[in-house]
Specification:
This protein is of the alpha+beta class. It has one domain: Mannose-Binding Protein A, subunit A (Mannose-Binding Protein A, Chain A), CATH 3.10.100.10. The protein is about 25% helix and about 25% strand. It is built from 3 helices and 8 strands. Strands 1, 2, 3, 4, 5, 6, 7 and 8 form an 8-stranded mixed beta sheet that branches. Strand 6 and strand 7 form a beta hairpin.
Length: about 160
């Protein structure tokens, strides 16, 4: 291995708080995100993230929401307004009681798009909706949407 590459890699790790995200993932503080290229149902997306030692994104602050909006705005500069990305929230268990599927915890932070959640099309799964400024919306869990996987501290938080 070229010494310059090794030095760059070591400097990158320490500059990022002692870890670096995997290739293709985007770092924000101690979190790494993967924005899917393909689409899946909410359950398929969740299973794919788990297979990648991660989970569907769980947004817990304005800072995190703003970061994801910025990233998605950069990915979708066409302004089609139809693009949506699954994240981990669901009210499948009790209608209008939104929880993170991974942990079962009630959401303490929400940034709903105008008019959301509206339970349109039996909307029980949460996504970030381009037409709503990539804020939170609910949709039918069987729709095939893009998704965002999240990994914490460069490591899996599950188990």
């Amino acid at each position: 291995m070229d010494v310059r590459i090794l030095i760059f890699f070591v400097i990158s790790i320490f500059a990022n708080g002692g870890f670096a995200c995997r290739f293709g993932w985007t770092q924000n503080g101690s979190l790494c995100y993967l924005f899917s290229h393909g689409t899946s149902t909410w359950a398929e997306a969740s299973a794919t993230c788990l297979a990648l030692n991660s989970h569907l994104a769980m947004i817990t602050s304005d800072t995190e929401q703003s970061f994801l909006i910025d990233q998605l705005d950069q990915l979708h500069q066409t302004g089609t307004s139809h693009t949506r990305y699954w994240i981990d929230g669901t009210d499948l268990e009790v209608e209008n009681v939104w929880r993170w599927a991974l942990t079962g915890d009630k959401l303490t932070y929400t940034a709903w798009a105008d008019g959301e959640p509206n339970n349109a099309q039996r909307g029980n799964c949460m996504n970030l909706y381009e037409g709503g400024g990539f804020k939170m919306a609910d949709d039918d869990c069987e729709l095939r949407l893009h998704y965002i996987c999240q990994e914490n501290d460069g490591a899996n938080i599950i188990g």
